Amino acid sequence: MTDGVVILGGGASGTLTAVALSALPDVGPLTLVDGAGAFARGVAYSTEEPRHLLNVPAGRMSALPDQPSHLLEWLAVRGETPDPEAFLQRRLYGAYLGELLGATGSRVQQVVDHAVALAPDGPGLRVDLAGRPSLRARAAVLALGNFPPELPPGWTALPSRLAWRTPWASPEDWPAPEAEVLLLGAGLTAVDVVLSLLARGHRGRIHLLSRRGLLPATHPPRMLAAVPLGPRTPRLRALLRMFRETARREDSRAVLDTLRPELGALWRGLTHPEQRRFLRHLRPWFDVVRHRLPPEVGARIGALEAEGRLVRHAGRVVSIAEQDGRVALRYRPRRARTLAVLAVDVAVPTTGPAMDVRALDDPLVRSLLDSGQARPGPHGLGFATAADGAVLGPLRDRLWTLGGLRRGDLWEATAIPEIRMQAREVAEALAGQLRTAGAG
What we know:
Elements: E1 5-8, H1 12-22, E2 30-34, H2 70-77, H3 90-102, E3 108-112, E4 115-121, E5 124-129, E6 135-137, E7 139-142, E8 181-184, H4 188-199, E9 206-210, H5 236-247, H6 252-259, H7 263-269, H8 272-290, H9 295-307, E10 310-323, E11 326-333, E12 340-344, E13 346-349, H10 363-370, E14 399-401, H11 407-410, H12 416-439
């Protein structure tokens, strides 16, 4: 047993936690564990595709909460243009996070392996790994990032060449240029796949199928200024009315940007039934305005749609099966009584990350839930957590989390501006707990 900390997940949230903890002198050795070895980059920033851009301007993407111009200064040192309004290539942002992690030096040991279980071990924890001996430490942080999309029934019965299991194919798995492709989902992940197809010379038609057929909004060329808002009554109907009334005279994107720092408090102020209604009825419309495309990406997607090469469908999947060597997907179009069929060469799940932890098959998540070491958060979104990110349950004094696993308590939990604050708060809370335990 040491007074060290194990961080499970080496992407952006794990990296920012490691950076925050490494700056605290009274924290012992740090071990960063990542199953894919994608340290600092994770899925989001591992892409080498130049067309994959951040969906937030560079001026808002500093990794350090107390140094808002840190990314811009890093760009200037590298000879890049430090434009706060620019949407950087995601691979460049991955390099930025990688340098931050590298600057921690020997303070952070990197381990490539999958964590499969946690168990109490005296005053600390034992972290069981899939391919090597267990790690022991005083505390751990779950920085697991986003989970793969939930697949509809029948999907995994199809050959993987017809129905991909994740949106991120290996280079040899991309469809033929003339293939007709279905993307199940129409959000940011779907747009990423469209851009990757185009980069590989794809010429076939691309279908997007989602419940409502909505594409993400596009950012304006320049960041929007805050707008005056009415009172924020902590009731869903009142908040919706305020938003709609303000959006009639102001840009709806600016309204949401103005509200963004308050979204966590507003979410927590809603009753459980109100949160459930938001998730069921309003979330798709919220996501369209909240999660936007860079202007150049939005223009490219609009042009593809105008050319007829990108076709949107709104409806609910009924079944999916192989038919004559292709994929036949039956769906019920929105507001229609009869079913429709899409026949394509390849289907790709792009519905975004699965969020209900009760349905995940991740070994570590399942182990924590089955053993009672953690319990689901509101609506099954992530784990139930304390205000400082501690996982509620018997390991509360030694297990913390951040990012998507706090979505049920915070709602707005997975973007860099939120993650960087969570990482610092977790680091401070964890260090305080270690100091308290050491004094005792």
